[in-house]
Amino acid sequence: MAILVDGNTKVLCQGITGSFGAFHTKGCHDYGTKLVGGVTPGKGGTTNPDGIPIFDTVREAVDETGADATMIFVPPPFAADAILEAADAGVSVVCAITEGIPVQDMVRTRAILKDYPDIVLIGPNCPGIITPGRRVSGQGAEAVFEDGCKIGIMPGYIHTAKADAATGKAIGVISRSGTLTYEAVWQTSVLGIGQSTCVGIGGDPVRGAGFIDLVERFEADPDTDGIIVIGEIGGTDEIEAAHWIKSNVKKPVAAFIAGRTAPPGKRMGHAGAIIGGAEDTAEAKIAAFRECGIQVAESPSDLGSTMALALGIEVATV
Amino acid sequence: MKIHEYQARQLLADAGIPVPAGSMVETVSDAVAEAERLFTGGETLVVTKAQVHAGGRGKAGFVKLIQSMEEAKEAAEFMLGNRMVSVQTGPEGIEVKRLLVAAGVDIEKEFYLAVTLDRTTGVNTLIASAEGGVEIETVAHENPDAIVRQHIDPLTGLEGFQARALAKRLGFTGRQIGQAASIMVKLAKLYEDLDASMVEINPLILTPPSDDAPEGRVMAIDAKFSFDDNALFRQPRLQAMQDPAEENPSEVRAEEAGLSYVALDGNIGCLVNGAGLAMSTMDIVKLHGGEPANFLDVGGSASKEAVTEAFRIILGDGRVQGVLVNIFGGIMKCDTIANAIVEAAKEVGFEVPLVVRLEGTNVDAARDILEAAKKDIPTMQTAEDLADAAGKVCTAVA
């Protein structure tokens, strides 16, 4: 078990013939994801180098392959339309990797998605979602996995399935940042803690699934033993999540907030990472987590150890 | 992206929102001519304002009320002939190239009007207050009930009846209600049409009753816009309004190379992949007692050339006394970074201490490249992990 996706999930790639889409389709396919098709308008009827069929529309792809998830690499001007096309075709997990979608496009898209309550949008501007597979052979970047589902751009090999974890425990990871997610995954993997599912919710101000949506799923997932929440400056989602966790979550939770040294009013890479006032600073968010009894990592190098501590796992100090 | 006040005024005027008469000038003689035009037209008070993005103009003497042609000349000569120094410009100040010369308007009452994104709901929101002329944050803090809000339906826009209700709540009466509501609807549409992330009219004013407007007139005196950089590709009018002279030159250069860079005040240059990790790297430098000189996210798929350019930008900052490279290779391959370090060492040279922490994809190949280059880059150290890297660079710089 995991959340949202697993080894049986059938995945499409929208924008499969673009350079990013093609590269990451291969990465996901190689990881063992059931990548059943791609969509590029005008290229229907062809296949990619691995023999994956390409369709003109998402609807056709779903009808032919039974796909239930999609990853979107469509360029920013057309990405919001691609999200809506996926939703309208009934794909239940829509993962928008594209960075740089105009905010107003997402405002409109989110309003329309209210008519599709069963669809979960992950992102945009995110690394994607992964439910790690079991390691079959090999080490490091050469490792081979089975029965996992990697939808997105994250390096698969740093993840550890619960079955392979030395501690026998696995955590759920929710993060607004890509590389910081990898950092959390790597640090927990090194400590023998696996991951049930990792979700990058993205760095944009208007996005699909948020912290609370996913924490709720992890809390209900029997294979998730703890949750790490990685936020950053901008918006107040983390503060609302902290209070929600306090009232609703029994599993151990650890948190980290990036951007304590970020100056106000400056966009720090992510479109959504900008301090607007006193409410959306790192300090305000860290304070909210602590008030709600959630352990917060002081430093990005303590993500793994803070999570371990919350799980009651002893970490040998080096 | 930000624009000048005179450009903001023009956007409002073109959308049918009333603004005082006036125009932008670039020379003393044009400033005088514009003042003359306004005085001749019956104005008794004219305001001259320096057009720069930095705030603090009033205190610096770069906003002046003038009542004669002589004063108009003096004000223009002073503003165009001196660098403006304010709390926001730094001690070296900035050159003023343009002035706005506009009619001064009698004010009966001031209001505040803005449209921005409500991130919690993902819906645009009109925010208004009957306490104009002051910072909205101050009002929010001291008198939150004075602020009224209206969500704007993303699919249909702000409706007239919603705007009229807001206008009434702000205290407008009679004909003023229609005028204020019309401004609100136009402003909401302008915000959406231009892909703004924030538009603020402060103050929106009501003029005293006059013969031609017995109930007074509602108009915008000053406006600020900021725009969504993601949408600039479809906003040719805004592209033309960009003023590179107002931007940090290193930030402009980084943008051209596809890098995300923000200049800060410290002395430890940071080169990182990913925005969250880049922010965290600044944070950990600070935790170890150092001060980051910049935020720099090379992105997930930067080429060797882009990363080399990143090193040029960091090393071109004279305050940088040490460089920290922190890469978690996912899509970004660690050997790409290692090769860029070798390239940058050849081309610009690392006079200052360099600490490199690499993890992830192709890390072994990268370590081999750096090991082989060590003799040519004597200031380089490698680090085991993030904490080790931060510790080493802070020690080296201290």
What portion of the residues of chain B fall into strands of 2 or more residues? 15-25%
Arithmetic mean pLDDT of chain A: 95
The helix/strand order of chain A is EHEEHEHEHEEEEEEHEHEHEHEH
Q: For the record, what is the CATH homologous superfamily label of the largest domain in chain A?
A: Succinyl-CoA synthetase domains
Biggest sheet record of chain A: 7 strands, mixed
Count of helical regions of chain A: 9
What is the count of structural domains of chain B? 3
Given the C-alpha coordinates, what overall shape of chain B results?
A: elongated
Low-pLDDT parts of chain B are none
Q: End-to-end distance of chain A, in Å? A: 34 Å
User: Oligomeric status of the shown chains?
Assistant: heterodimer
Structural class of chain B: alpha+beta
Question: What are the defining features of this structure?
Answer:
heterodimer, A: 318 residues, alpha/beta, Rossmann fold, seven-stranded mixed sheet, 9 helices, 21% strand, globular, B: 398 residues, D-amino Acid Aminotransferase, Chain A, domain 1, Dna Ligase, domain 1, 3 domains, six-stranded antiparallel sheet, four-stranded antiparallel sheet, elongated
Question: Could you please describe the fold and organization of this structure?
Answer:
The complex is a heterodimer of chains A (318) and B (398). Chain A has helices at 19-31, 58-65, 76-88, 103-113, 178-190, 211-220, 237-248, 282-291, 303-311; strands at 10-14, 34-39, 54-55, 69-72, 93-96, 120-122, 128-131, 134-137, 144-146, 149-152, 170-175, 194-200, 226-232, 253-258, 295-296. In chain A, helix 3 (76-88) runs parallel beside helix 4 (103-113). In chain A, strands 10-7-12-11-13-14-15 form a seven-stranded mixed beta sheet, sandwiched between helices. Chain A has a six-stranded parallel beta sheet with strand order 3-2-1-4-5-6, with helices on both faces. Chain A is an alpha/beta fold and 318 residues long. Chain A has two domains: 10-122, Rossmann fold (3-Layer(aba) Sandwich); 160-311, Rossmann fold (3-Layer(aba) Sandwich), CATH 3.40.50. Chain A contains nine helices and 15 strands. The model of chain A has no long low-confidence stretch (mean pLDDT 95). In chain A, strand 11, helix 5 (178-190) and strand 12 form a beta-alpha-beta unit. Chain A is globular, with a radius of gyration of 19 Å. Chain B is α+β, with helices and mostly antiparallel strands and 398 residues long. Chain B has three domains: 1-20 and 106-246, ATP-grasp fold, B domain (D-amino Acid Aminotransferase, Chain A, domain 1, 2-Layer Sandwich), CATH 3.30.470; 21-104, Dna Ligase, domain 1 (2-Layer Sandwich); 249-397, 3-Layer(aba) Sandwich (Rossmann fold), CATH 3.40.50.261. In chain B, 38% of the residues lie in helices and 23% in strands. Chain B is built from 14 helices and 16 strands. In chain B, strands 5, 6, 7, 8, 9 and 10 form a six-stranded antiparallel beta sheet that branches. A four-stranded antiparallel beta sheet of chain B has the order 1-4-2-3. A four-stranded parallel beta sheet of chain B has the order 12-14-15-16, with helices on both faces. In chain B, strand 15 (354-360), helix 13 (363-373) and strand 16 form a beta-alpha-beta unit. In chain B, helix 2 runs antiparallel to helix 4, helix 11 crosses helix 12 (334-347) and helix 12 packs parallel to helix 13 (363-373). Chain B is elongated, with a radius of gyration of 26 Å. The model of chain B has no long low-confidence stretch (mean pLDDT 92). The chains are: A alpha/beta (318), B alpha+beta (398).
